[in-house]
Amino acid sequence: MTELSLRHNWQIKEISDLLEMPFNDLLFKAQTIHRQNFNPNEVQISTLLSIKTGACPEDCGYCSQSAKHDTSLERERLLPLQEVIEQATAARENGSSRFCMGAAWRNPTDKNLDKVIEMISAVKALGMETCVTLGMLTADQTRRMKEAGLDYYNHNLDTSPEYYDKVITTRSFDDRLNTLEYVRDAGINVCSGGIVGMGESEKDRASLLQQLANLPTHPQSVPINMLVQVEGTPLFNADKLDHLEFIRTIAVARIIMPESYVRLSAGRSEMSDETQALCFFAGANSIFYGDKLLTTENPDENHDLNLMKKLGISPSQYQAVKSTEQLAS
Ligand code: SAM
Ligand code: DTB
Ligand code: SF4
Question: Pairing between strand 261-264 and 152-154?
Answer without folding.
Answer: unpaired
